[in-house]
Amino acid sequence: MDRVSEDLLWGVNPDLARRVRNMAATLSARGIEIKVSSGKRSTERQAALYANRANNPYPVARPGTSKHEQGLAVDVVPTGARTSRASVIIGEEGEREGLRWGGRFTKRDPVHFELLDGGGDDLVLDGSKVISQAKEQATGVRVLAVLGIAALVIRVLRS
Ligand SMILES: [Zn+2]
To answer: How many whole angstroms from 117 Cα to the centroid of ligand 1?
Structure first.
């Protein structure tokens, strides 16, 4: 990938960057070169894009709600012709790398790739993941409490 792409990847989540580099290598072997056209965005930048969304061929999220603002999304385009065939090949390669592809969104965004909730190796926890872990821990404590009571009842019955 070109220098601009590498600079953009330095600004995003390292796990996302790693997956996009893997995509680029695999696609290059298949004769498709890609570049990163957008990485992490400030909320000001997202607001500017949102204000100008009528002129954008792709959907633009409201400022404060874009994964780009968290460094968890990139936009990827082929360096050659932006055919729908190239878009699908790139999208499916991103999915093989474990990324969520915007080409499947209701408002199709075929250039967009983002980490699934919770990220990957580097574990960027989002709120829902933290809540589900807290629930699991609470369930574990409850199971231990029930087992403790059962053991106590058995001991009382035996005495
Ligand atoms: Zn995007």
So the answer is: 16
Confidence of residue 148 (pLDDT cuts 50, 70, 90): confident
CA 57 / ligand 1 centre spacing (Å)? 12
Domain range for 74: 3-158
Helices and strands (H and E) in the chain: how many: 5, 4
Q: How far apart are CA 109 and CA 102, in angstroms?
A: 4
Structure confidence at residue 104 as a pLDDT band (50, 70, 90): very high
Tell me what the mean pLDDT of segment 11-28 comes to. 98
Give the pTM. Answer: 0.72
Give the count of domains, the chain: 1
For residue 29, how far is its CA from the centre of ligand 1 (angstroms)?
25
Confidence of residue 136 (pLDDT cuts 50, 70, 90): low
* Cα-based angle 59, 64, 67 (whole degrees, multiple of 5): 60
Element (H, E) at 100: strand 99-101
Cα 148 to averaged position of ligand 1 atoms, centre (Å): 51
- Domain of 132, CATH number, reads 3.30.1380.10
- Average pLDDT on 107-120 reads 83
Distance 143 CA to ligand 1 centre (A): 43
